[in-house]
Amino acid sequence: MKKIYIAAFVFSTFFFAGCADDYLDVDQTESISTKDTELFNNDAGATTFVTAIYNKFLNWDMTSFGWIGLSSITSDDADKGSSPGDTGTDKDVLDALTYDASNPSAESTFTANYAGINRCNQALNIIPQLDKADPVLRTRLIGEAKFLRAFMYFTLVKCYGGVPIIDHLPNPSSEADRIMLSTRKSSAEVYAYIENDLNDAIAALPLKSQYSSSEKARASKGAAYALLAKVNLYQKNWQKVIDNCNLVTGYSIVPDYASMFQLAGENGPESIFEINGVGAVPIKGIEGYSNTQGARGAGGWGWGFNTPSESLVNAYEAGDKRKNATIIFAGTTLYDGRFVPLTVENPRYNYKAYSSTFTDAWETDTNIKYLRYAEVLLMKAEALNELGQTYEAIPLLNQIRNRAGLANTVFSSQSDIRMAIWRERRVEMAFEHDRFFDLVRTGQAKAAFAADISPSFPNGKTFTEGKNELFPIPATFIRQAGGLSQQNPGYN
Amino acid sequence: MRNFIFSFLALILLPAYMSGQVIKGKVVDQTGLGVPGAFVVSGNASTDTDFDGGFSINAKEGDILKISLVGFESVSVAAKLTLMTITMKESEDTALKEVVVIGYGTRKKVDNTTAISSIKAEEITRTKVMNASQAIQGKAAGVQVISSDAPGSMPSVVIRGLGTALGGKNPLYIVDGMPTENTNNINTNDITSYEILKDASALAIYGTRAANGVIIITTKKGKGDKISVEIESFAGIREPLKKVKMAGSNKYSHYSNVALQSTKFSQDQPVNTDWFDEITRTGTYTQNNASISGSTENIKYFFSLGNYSEKGILLGLDYDRVTFRNNNEFKLSKKLTINQNFSLSSTKSVPKPLSAFTNAYKQSPIVPVYFPNGQYGVSWVGADGFASTSGSSFNNVGNPVAQLNYFDEKQKSVLLQGGLKLDYEIIKSLKFTSQFNGEYYNWKNYNYEDTKAIWESSNNPGQLSTIIYPADKNINFLTKGREEYFNWNLSNYLTYNKVFADIHDVEVTAGIETSVKGSREKLTIGRRNVNPNANYWSLKDVNYAGDDITNYRDETFNELRLASYFGRFQYKLKDRYLLTGTIRRDGSSNFGKDYRWGNFPAFGLGWIITKESFMADIKAINVLKLRGGWGRLGNQNVPLNNQSYASGLSSYLGGSILNEGTTINSQIDPSLSWEVTEETSIGLDFELLDSRLKGTFDVYDKNTNNVILYTKPITTSGITYESAGHVGEVSNKGYEISLRWDDKINDDLSYWVGGNYSNNKNELTGTKKVFLSIQDGGNLGNGQNTKILDDTSVGQPLGSFYMYEYAGIDAANGKMLYYNAAGAKVTQDALNLNTDRIYVGSIMPTSTYGVTLGVNYKNFDLSVDGYGTAGAKVYNGKKAQRFSGENIEDSLATDFWTVNNTSATNPGPFNQVPVASTYYLESGDFFRINNITLGYKLPIKEDGWVSSCRLYVNAINPFITQKFSGFSPELVGDGEPTKTQGVELDAYPTLRSFVIGANLKF
Question: Which residues form the RagB/SusD domain (chain A) (predicted)?
Fold first, then answer.
């Protein structure tokens, strides 16, 4: 009898030990577990994780007020605008290039891009697990996520130089991940990482023409090549710029420049990658983008920030159609018949942020054109010129000039053509969030800001070389990094 | 083991001496089992009984045999030639026989190496309160009990300091083997022992659930050889121990006029409402219990039925509980015993909102309870400066009486607990125990809000036809709730006990256990515009689906499973050197696969110094024992990995199709697991002067090195939600002393005096390389927080207050001033929330102490128990929440700053929400007489129909000395030290009770 008991006890112990681990697998019932991917294990489910990344680009902190301040108001194309007393938190110091390490716009841009990168990493983590979704679709989605991650790292490296590279979902208690999150990499490492992502994206993405008409704003193979060309341009890898520009196919220059910035022209033949807003219900537009830049005061509809500078107005040659397509002048009538009276507070506003139908709405149908075929031509022209093939660069430049109603360029020397291409980039892409970085890239910044004369800045502005090329890393991050990352020069 | 000791002693000390005849017999105990090791003496001959209780001794027929054994009463019988059977009766409790419950077994107190406080049944029933944990306040060193007198509330028990910030703080209760969290279902009269396991070496056998300490409650069993019936009844009245004197109407009007710099209020008011009196009544409570118990040769039985009923001091608040318990023990064979227990507790309660206390504090005395037209008074003032049914509103406080009358809620619950325990003696030294326990809980409630009537009472006291209830609003609103769960626990273990080579006494316990805390299912339905007649809320065949159902929550909380292995080795060498080793391995379903198993080892050492020969001559010292140990414990009630999908992040991608977007905006720490506490402790037990003075001294050092706190993700993670991580370190260091002197002067007079003192230093000693997410706490509901837990809290005790330091008043204008970080005195508008606040002490006392004394004279008994704490701070939340137009305390009404009284201690009237500051922070120190009992036992014969009758009167909390100016410095709040615990806001006052009762035994 006793032997039976002992045997039973010993047996039950082994039995218990054997299945105890399964026994402890309890399904959670109070919230949907993120371990339970089954809910998303289909085509629509897989797609949602990438849609969330695009959604980030509609956010206030990602693409709106802070980003406008950082990428546009700082440049010589734009002034702060608005009422003299309304600083827009920090837009006055951005305009004056006097911002410090605690600049809110620099902080929100940094934070927002990393929030977007998290969405990419979440998508890249989960989509491979969704085995019931179409494999072709999954490949494309992974490509989109990688393109978008590269896009955001490109923004970060342009603004801040080398930044931490977060290539996987961090574990909050892992020391290795803490070091990853806290340690700035060199610019070169970030560029290498971006190129790697873009090459993966190129392999995975379809052509724009292969997307249905309702999904033209998705990242395409052409977009990845164009961005890669721009990344090459920033690193002065001229031959690669040319090679990649040549691979951007299926696009063309539209005849009417102004049409691209109106609803009908969105995602047209020249468009390579843009951020897409919709103002009709259910509304999903870029939060506050049109409103913060809308005309201010009586007869206006917005806050009046980011106004075109005198320097920009003067940059247009006579007869350039792009001037009136880029700048709203007070006292004129817009393409949709709206009259902007002289009672508005500022003489000029950003036309490219204007929405005809949803003029004063917080979210409108205004898009941001981040990559256009015109820029591809200009990048190629610049690279050809740098490699001494000036003769081949000139027709590309003229193609852009002619569309704007201008005659062929009068210059022919390599150095003159270089300057002509840079000037052309300015007027062609004004208010498309490129100018400040272009000035830094081309080394023209100090001179350009000195010449950025306006009533508020009669002597121009001071661009401090060795400092103003980069924005400050947020002080909160430097503190969190606990010595693993240093602030950019000049901001301590 | 006892067998061994005494046979051993007998062998050494008493050489056998043979003469006369051989008398043979057997010594048995009351159950008929042989008693080994008993000492049998006849004249010069002596022997001791063998392992079956048998003996043989040289003696003559008729010689007196004297049989003695420690733990039994000595017996003297005449020797017979026939085989004798001598029954020994177990003696009353003695130090050597006293056992303590140690978890999966018992141990003789003298052989125990750990820190355990045992509280006897009579200590628990002496104070007439509903929950046993409230009754033990001040009776065990190192155990802090914070209780509320709100009927049905569960006291908060903290053993040897707080070791966790966000995790569960309650000790684990083991009731007759069932792990449970709530002990409100236990009738205190049914308890036979209440043991508090305090140090790690005692607790480790409970593994992941032991870090906050374990309380083992054992209920009664039948005993004796005849049926015993016991009836106990008492009735008492209850009233607030302390009230706060408020300003009357005229003083209120004067103060408010000064504040408003107008003559809005007449200073000759016709109404002077004492709102506290209006919302309270004299509370009453009664308890009646009847129990039947007894035993036969094979069955022990115990039945108990009890009813506790209380009418609270807050108008309309009622609580009623019926308990039934049945514990049986069946001895099926010599080797097999089955214990069965069952308990049922059913409660019905009518709750009322405790915010009525705050509203009564704040509502103006010029407002009448009812206006002359019969409508509830509202805080509107007319042109005459009196409260009026028309006019302008002067504060946002409702009518507290209306609030209580309109609050219509009932709750009912049933808790069933039961278990079976099987003990089987496989071989002489090896016992197998299997125990199953389960509990089922069911709760339901309704809450009916007469929305329209409430609106009209506060918006249209004048019953004007021009004021019309908005048609789109609900007429009424009904919320119904249901909740249930089933938990169970199964343990199987073997106990092996043997003495080797006469000096090695070994006991080994090994077992497995599984515990399931079932899903708590909760259903809440909200319906509007129901039939006002409660009988028609749940009609047959009616489908209520539709617009009128506005809330429908159907929740199933996560199930929790635990699988465990445990083992314990107890060794005693030469009756004086003690060693205990314990290990438990627990797996919890709460945690990730790779992090769910943990090992919890402990050891204890003991040395009974008085058993050493060199101590033999020191007569003054009866027992001296040194013990110590180390152990590791877990707390699995910690914040969990809760990560969810964030949806709604949709986007158009160029066309008109809105694509749904989803991501995850939180981090998961897969290694998140229990918090681990390590404790080292040393203790000394002593009994001196014929065991009249007994005492214990303990010191301990407890560290929790992986406390879970919420961390702020690093910016570059792109994640904004805080995540729980093992990042904190909490230390508790302290000591405990308890002393008690018992003496019996003669047969008529005995007395005792005792006391205990505990000191604990709690500190958040550090955090790892992370940034903590700021946790504000102690919110007053007016935008002010009184506590914080973040990176600045390192070096502070948990539950610390964090606020501005009050710097007195500005004599020039009567404004309150505060110190800023630079040390300058500034007004509140000039303060910086981030830099000017400081830590000003914790809600947790550093010291607690208890005293007890008692006298028994003839048939009278008198006992007094007191309890006090020192070092805690409390926040006068209701006073700090007071806003313009609300009442003020009388002490302020006569002493506030005006241009003519610039030296007043209180600031001038202000119409701004005051910042949280030390102006409202007070000392929580108090000493209170918890209980005075006087009993008289009627002189009746024990063999009569009524064998015993004791009448008693009992005063609970008759006196208090406190520094706090509010109602009570004992403030449970929400039970969270980092939140509203220690803040007096919506608090039920501590009560003084007078009780008369009787206890009869048949």
Answer: 354-491
Low-confidence ranges of chain A (pLDDT < 50): 1, 14
Residue listed under structure tokens 């919110």: B779
> CB-CB: which of A6, A48, A117 is closest to B662?
A48
- A103 and A91 belong to one structural domain: yes
pLDDT of residue B620: 85
pLDDT, position A16:
54
> Is A214 within 8 Å of B656 when comparing Cβ atoms?
yes
Instruction: Pull the structure tokens for residue B948.
Output: 């015993």
**pTM given for the model:** 0.82
**Residues B217-261: pLDDT tens digits?**
999 988 877 788 999 999 999 999 999 999 999 999 999 988 888
DSSP letter, residue A333:
B
Q: Which residue has the higher pLDDT, B119 or A239?
A: A239
Mean pLDDT across chain B: 88
Provide the pLDDT for residue B92: 54
In a domain, B871, yes or no: no
Given 3-state DSSP classes, what are the helix, strand and coil percentages for chain B, each rounded to the nearest 5?
10, 50, 40
- Beta-bridged to residue A45, according to DSSP, are none
- The C-alpha of B714 sits at a distance from chain A's nearest C-alpha, in angstroms, of 6
Q: Which residues are CB-contacts of B9 (< 8 A; sequence separation ≥ 6)?
A: none
Distance CA(B677)–CA(B701), nearest Å, equals: 10
Q: Which two tokens stand for residue A49?
A: 């994780």
- Give me the CATH number covering residue B47: 2.60.40.1120
Q: Is the pLDDT of residue B8 over 70?
A: no
Is residue B799 a contact partner of residue B162, using CB atoms and an 8 Å limit? yes
Share above pLDDT 70 across residues of chain B, in percent, rounded to a whole number: 97
User: Cβ(B732)–Cβ(B752) under 8 Å?
Assistant: no
Estimate to the nearest angstrom the gap between the alpha carbon of B901 and the chain centroid. Answer: 48
CATH number of domain containing A76: 1.25.40.390
- Tell whether B696 is covered by a domain: no
Number of domains in chain B: 1
The angle formed by the CA atoms of residues B203, B209 and B211, to the nearest 5 degrees, is 55
CB contact under 8 Å between B719 and A118, yes or no, is: yes
Q: How many CB atoms lie under 10 A from the CB of residue B398?
A: 20
pLDDT at position B369, please?
95
Buried b or exposed e, range B590-622, using 16+ CB within 10 angstroms: bbeeeebbbebbbbbbbbbbbbeeeeeeeeeeb
Question: Which residue type sits at A174?
Answer: S
On whether ipTM exceeds 0.95, the answer is no
pLDDT of B501 strictly over 70: yes
When scoring B714, B767, B774 by the number of chain A Cβ atoms within 10 A, the one with the most, hence best to mutate, is B714
Domain carrying residue A166: 40-279+369-473
- Measured CA to CA in angstroms, residue B779 lies from B71, B782, B788, B819 at distances of 58, 8, 10, 22
Closest chain A C-alpha to B298 CA, distance in angstroms: 22
Exposed/middle/buried for residue A325 (C-beta within 10 Å: 0-12, 13-18, 19+): buried
Q: What are the pLDDT digits (tens) for B891-950?
A: 988 889 988 888 888 998 887 888 999 999 999 999 999 999 999 998 887 777 888 899
B67-104 confidence digits (pLDDT tens): 877 666 777 788 888 888 888 776 654 445 678 888 88
Give the CA radius of gyration of chain A.
26
Q: Has residue A453 been placed in a domain?
A: yes
Residue B883 placed within a domain: no
Domain count for chain A, please give it: 2
Q: How far is A180 from chain B (nearest CA, A)?
A: 9
Angstrom distance (rounded) from CA B164 to CA B144? 16
Q: Crossing angle of helices A435-442/A414-428, nearest 10°?
A: 160
Distance CA B124, CA B133 (A): 8
Structural domain includes residue B962: no
